[in-house]
Design goal:
OB fold (Dihydrolipoamide Acetyltransferase, E2P); 127 residues; 0% helix; five-stranded mixed sheet; 50% strand; 2 domains; extended; mainly beta
């Protein structure tokens, strides 16, 4: 599947085979349609993961899993670009870089080095 040309692939997940088809803005998994929006991806940062969540111009970056904060790389007032490392989180014996999904100014940092957090915790708010 390359860009908007679409395509069809078979993939295996959890021991089950699935047919995935893309045609323009239509995605079908095993024949079931899902509308999609195609847009450029964030910069490719090796080993990086992006957080999610947004409300009223403020993006809340949350971890993809619980873990221990190894490093907080930003402070309130810092200007960040999409793809910049915000926090390094240790989970499942691996260090994961949590990157900014947007360009903006760090409004607040909700974690500290050494802190154990759950996946619902807001790491950083960006506006």
């Amino acid at each position: 599947m390359h860009g908007s040309k679409g395509g069809r692939v078979e993939l295996e997940a959890d021991g089950h085979a699935h047919i995935v088809e893309v045609d323009g803005t239509d995605l079908r998994v095993d024949g079931r349609p899902y509308p999609i929006t195609v847009r450029p991806a964030l910069p490719n940062v090796p080993g990086a993961m992006k957080g999610g969540g947004a409300a009223s111009g403020i993006t809340q970056v949350k971890p993809p899993m619980p873990g221990k904060v190894v490093k907080v790389a930003v402070s309130a007032g810092d200007v960040v670009q999409a793809g910049d490392v915000l926090v390094v989180l240790e989970a499942m014996k691996m260090q994961n870089e949590i990157v900014s999904p947007v360009e903006g100014t760090v409004k607040s940092v909700g974690v500290e080095n050494g802190e154990n957090i759950d996946a619902k915790r807001v790491l950083v708010e960006i506006e």
